[in-house]
């Protein structure tokens, strides 16, 4: 398998010229890292998907385009409730090569990065030394809030460009940062019978966003059960770096001051993961092994929303429906 091959190469490169480590130690560490990557994959996946929903929440609020060189400046609050099924996952002893659940348990539900606390421990042996560690814990939040600013400008041919750049925002100890851009083109202009502001509008949009998050959890120590033996690793955070391309079709219909909006979107995503903590050989090996998790996936989601217009302002509420239910509130001002 790809993960096991990568771990074997990493182990070989780091240990082939080091004689102080026994062959048993090297093989045991290889098995341990394989188990850790398996756990980490299920631990980080919900947070990675959540980052896509947060970073692609509201590239649009209508299918209509701004007039040429007209600006729309908006303040957003993104609200992401975390579903119960994304807060934990099940593991069994049969899933692992070296790890076993402590206290004789055969299976357990443990938190994902979006979950909470746990008292689940694992035991394992490396080179005849007994070790234990507590399962990762999550952000301990049932809802994630993410405020940001956005600016759009109208161009020629009913085309509109939108940009986001948000400096790092701290929520508790965790931090979030995003930037990107999108371009929207109105399709209705090609079959519109007359120029009306109250007709049905259709548009297509392509967007790119880069979302970085650093999720801190309680100190996670992989330590020996024997006194005086230094820990193998101390971990404190998970970094998720996602690059997302968004393709969507948008429809909207205005009735006087109210406008109803709907869209279907496909997001193609590339994720990179890194664990933070005290520097050491196991942490370095784990992060090298994490490169096996750096993959791409696709998400499909629908969006429904409503706008209320008054003067040069409008209030927007947009809900994204899919693996997560994401809600975005915004105030827009047109210049």
Automatic annotation (TrEMBL):
One Pfam family cited in the UniProt record for this chain: DUF6588
Protein origin, superkingdom: Bacteria
Signal sequence residues: 1-22
Keyword annotations: Signal
InterPro entries (UniProt xref): DUF6588
Protein name: Uncharacterized protein
Organism expressing this protein natively: Ulvibacter antarcticus
């Amino acid at each position: 398998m790809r993960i096991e091959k990568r771990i074997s190469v990493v182990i070989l490169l780091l240990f082939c010229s080091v004689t102080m480590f026994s062959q048993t130690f090297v093989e045991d560490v290889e098995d341990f890292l394989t188990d850790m990557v398996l756990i980490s994959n299920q631990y980080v996946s919900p947070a990675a998907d959540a980052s896509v929903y947060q970073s692609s929440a509201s590239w649009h609020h209508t299918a209509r385009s701004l007039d040429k060189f007209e600006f729309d400046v908006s303040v957003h609050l993104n609200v992401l409730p975390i579903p119960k099924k994304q807060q934990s996952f099940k593991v069994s002893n049969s899933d692992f090569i070296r790890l076993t659940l402590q206290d004789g348990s055969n299976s357990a539900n443990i938190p994902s990065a979006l979950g909470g606390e746990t008292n689940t421990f694992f035991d394992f042996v490396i080179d005849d030394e007994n070790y234990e560690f507590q399962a990762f814990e999550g952000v301990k939040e049932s809802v994630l809030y993410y405020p940001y600013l956005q600016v759009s400008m109208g161009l020629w041919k009913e085309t509109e460009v939108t940009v986001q750049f948000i400096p790092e925002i701290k929520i508790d100890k965790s931090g979030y940062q995003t930037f990107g851009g999108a371009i929207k083109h109105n399709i209705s202009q090609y079959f519109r019978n007359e120029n009306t502001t109250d007709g049905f509008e259709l548009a297509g949009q392509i967007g790119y966003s880069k979302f970085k998050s650093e999720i801190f959890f309680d100190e996670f120590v992989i330590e020996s059960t024997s006194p005086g033996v230094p820990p193998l690793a101390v971990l404190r955070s998970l970094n998720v770096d996602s690059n997302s391309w968004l393709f969507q079709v948008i429809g909207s219909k205005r009735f006087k001051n109210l406008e109803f909006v709907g869209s279907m979107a496909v997001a193609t995503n590339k994720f990179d993961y890194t664990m933070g903590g005290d520097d050491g050989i196991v942490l370095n090996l784990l992060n090298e092994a994490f490169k096996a998790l750096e993959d791409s996936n696709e998400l499909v989601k629908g969006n429904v929303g409503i706008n209320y217009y008054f003067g040069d302002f409008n209030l927007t509420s947009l809900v994204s429906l899919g693996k997560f239910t994401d809600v975005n509130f915004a105030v827009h001002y047109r210049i």
